[in-house]
Amino acid sequence: MRMVAEADEDLVEIVLLSLEVSLSAVAIAAVIGMPLGAWLTMYRFPGRRVVIALLNSFMGMPPVVLGLVVYLLLSRAGPLGQYGLLFTPQAMVFAQTLLVLPIIAALTRQTLDDLHRDYDEQFRSYRIGPLPGTFILIREGRYSLATALLAGFGRASAEVGAVMIVGGNINHVTRVMTTTIAMETSKGDFSLALGLGIVLLTIVISINALVLLLQSREKLA
User: Fold this and answer.
1) Structural domain of residue 212, as residue ranges?
2) Average pLDDT of 67-94?
3) How far is Cα 197 from Cα 68, in angstroms, rounded to an integer?
4) This prediction's pTM
């Protein structure tokens, strides 16, 4: 508690890096995942059900497995090894983006798919095409889509396995809240771990509160 109250320098540095990595990952995943989810809603094509099934399956991807795949991609012998991204914050963003992307895409598709059933007859009556129809559905489902983004951020901010593998938990470089809590606990040094735990718990509670608020607004809208 004392470290949190006094805004300990190491604690603040770790929290800020954690937020930077997770928010960056969610932003990138949203830019890719939300259009993907909308596309799967508005267009019918052979193999669509297979793509949706794979997307839903990847929502449960074990982080350590994903971390291993990203590690192999970014290692010197890997196809992206020439860029020297391993054990950097960029590698952590890359791993978290891949972790969060299926969640945002799948929840976006589910949200818009449910709305599309309600609006499909009107779209046909007014001859509204897929692109303008997508914008209408996004506007109507904005609260649910915001909830999807919050769910992605919650998953990213609480993740430890993948970022530990690709980030290495290097002091002042790639130490984030979850990896630091794990390391400090294993060392028996609980002061920093408890301080970060309080901050992380506060973030998680705040996210859940925002989700409930958005859901209540959606019901009233």
Assistant:
1) 2-220
2) 94
3) 26
4) 0.90
